[in-house]
Specification:
- This protein has a domain at about 75-240.
- The chain contains eleven helices and no strands.
- The model is unreliable at about 230-240 (pLDDT under 50).
- Helices cover about 80% and strands about 0% of the residues.
- It is an all-alpha fold and about 240 residues long.
- Helix 7 (about 125-150) packs antiparallel against helix 8 (about 155-170).
Length: about 240
């Protein structure tokens, strides 16, 4: 797979964004736990925003072409974004059910819980979770990686491979099936509409919904629900 130059720059920007935290090490050596969390969140937000601006610069030509179109199909974009949100939610629920009752993986993502704990402490992180993050991930994994793979192979394999890479990058290996399933839906939305804004909006919608649900619940109640699901999983699997 050979990415076009501008896509290579986008992927490199995404990688450097994640490793930019190494530059912060000299600044965190004397911080206590509370200060460390706050500093880490603000650093992450800054890194995401810088990466966002850089990626837009690399894609400025494609952005100009979109805005120059006489028929931007706005209502089609809105409809597919709305539909895509529900398709992604369904894919996620099916994947969770398979993980829980077939593979025996405990429901609930520690990665998500940790991120939401930081968001409660430093609310500005919500901007990255709901807006900036989905934009960057769709530009990297759907527009750059999937878009390039799709030129070399059929949709199924291009979607599956790019979604699997998307899942691996999240470093939440117990829930690779969930990330892969959702990523596959986003790839479908992109190829069906030929508009990267559609999977971006669907992705942002999913993340926003997750944030609202998580922040509206007591963390202790979430843990209790996960324990009940785990007990139900044991009963069902034990029954077989």
């Amino acid at each position: 797979m050979i990415l076009p130059r501008r896509y290579i720059y986008i992927v490199i920007t995404y990688i450097l964004m994640h490793f930019s935290s190494l530059l912060a090490i000299p600044f965190i050596l004397n911080l206590d736990e509370s200060q460390l969390v706050t500093f880490s969140v603000y650093w992450q937000v800054g890194a995401f925003l810088v990466a966002f601006i850089i990626m837009l610069i690399f894609l400025r030509t494609e952005m100009k072409e979109f805005f120059a179109l006489e028929n931007k199909r706005i209502w089609n974009i809105i409809l597919w974004s709305f539909l895509g949100f529900f398709l992604a939610m369904i894919a996620q629920m099916v994947a969770v059910l398979i993980q829980t009752f077939v593979l025996g993986i405990r429901p609930g993502s520690e990665n998500t819980l940790e991120i939401m704990a930081m968001a409660r402490q430093v609310p500005i992180l919500i901007i990255v979770i709901t807006i900036v993050g989905p934009i960057l991930e769709e530009l990297v994994f759907r527009k750059a990686i999937f878009g390039t793979l799709y030129k070399k192979m059929n949709f199924f394999f291009a979607g599956l491979l790019s979604s699997f890479i998307f899942a691996l990058v999240h470093m939440d290996f117990n829930h690779i099936l969930v990330y892969t399933a959702v990523g596959f839906v986003f790839a479908f939305l992109y190829i069906e509409t030929k508009r990267i804004i559609v999977p971006i909006l669907a992705h942002a919608g999913m993340n926003t919904f997750a944030v609202i649900v998580q922040l509206s619940q007591d963390p202790e109640k979430i843990e209790e629900q996960l324990r009940l699901l785990e007990q139900l999983q044991s009963i069902i699997i034990g029954g077989f």
